[in-house]
């Protein structure tokens, strides 16, 4: 169910890019205005991720996810009832507010079903649900748009969201690993030394102790770079391929499906591989931290080179790397965050992580639209936008490589212990 939730989530994100041309033509949107519309999805995205993340510390994730799915479905209705620039903004803003907390809450719910040493594959499966959503949505929604108009794609997504909510009401449950122990999930092979803490009762953890550590921020900044490519691909890649390289609608759908396939394969292979390395004695810093950074750097480098590559296999390969490799960084960042965050703060910590990582959704489309319009022509504008985004992504990847160190930061965030009262000596 959570895998399917991720599919629907990214189908909702992808639909605007797929419907960009007919929607822009009907509503008279320029590149800049379209970029603002795409960014509006993320206006409340990060704010709601933070707020709902703190709520999830106290409310069962089953009910939180149900409420979010209902909001998704209802958010599509204003645009379908009366299509205008105003209702388009309203629909995307409300939809983003409903979807913003989803990743953090879904991962928090997922981790309640698996011990720390078994989370690599579930984390990867959740993330590849996003790729599968784009992989399925690209051809299906493109077909609906071409045959029945752009509104049909939005109707389809609203219906699917409602069906998921109904099923989740019946199926959704809390997992057995959701009982607060007030302890961080210690990295495999890096258990806390025996001592007073081992026999004491742990105190609730200060948020500053885990939000101030470098591993959390390294994962957040690396994810920021990776999500820049996600936001750019969702909003502008279909239009870019059609306008600059004369792709047909079917060729655009196939190109998007290709990079979506990469977003499935990379997390599914990299996360278990990193977990295997860790079990064999490699530090989490190397297995998960450096791997996150390298994936983001590769995506940024490919994005920088993309506008200088001619149509062909080379361009398709760069497209797949630029928009697909960053997906592998997200499950690794969830795992490293869980390693340095006590369970009593994990819902909020993951919510804040996702909020920061997804900020490019608010920034990237708007900046890209302005840069495209600022060029001497569309071609020069796209070169400027893609190179700028690529270099920014590379820098974010370097930050992740240099700062993520779960073994070090897990010790810094370990909650203080309250010694157990001494037993009275026998008379």
Short key terms for the protein model shown above:
mainly alpha, two-stranded antiparallel sheet, 2 strands, 427 residues, Growth Hormone, Chain: A, 1% strand
Write a structural description:
The chain has 427 residues and is mainly α. It has one domain: Growth Hormone, Chain: A (Up-down Bundle). It contains 21 helices and two strands. The chain has helices at residues 2-18, 20-27, 31-40, 45-55, 61-75, 77-81, 85-99, 102-111, 120-148, 150-171, 196-199, 207-211, 214-245, 249-279, 284-305, 313-324, 329-340, 346-357, 360-374, 378-403, 406-413, and strands spanning 201-202, 417-418. It has a two-stranded antiparallel ribbon. Helix 5 (61-75) packs antiparallel against helix 10 and helix 13 (214-245) runs antiparallel to helix 17 (329-340). It is globular, with a radius of gyration of 22 Å.
Topology (elements, then pairings):
Elements: H1 2-18, H2 20-27, H3 31-40, H4 45-55, H5 61-75, H6 77-81, H7 85-99, H8 102-111, H9 120-148, H10 150-171, H11 196-199, E1 201-202, H12 207-211, H13 214-245, H14 249-279, H15 284-305, H16 313-324, H17 329-340, H18 346-357, H19 360-374, H20 378-403, H21 406-413, E2 417-418
Antiparallel strand pairs: 1-2
Helix pairs in contact: 1-9, 1-10, 1-13, 3-19, 4-7, 4-18, 5-7, 5-8, 5-10, 8-18, 9-10, 9-14, 9-17, 13-14, 13-15, 13-17, 13-18, 13-19, 13-20, 14-15, 14-16, 15-16, 15-17, 15-20, 17-21, 19-20
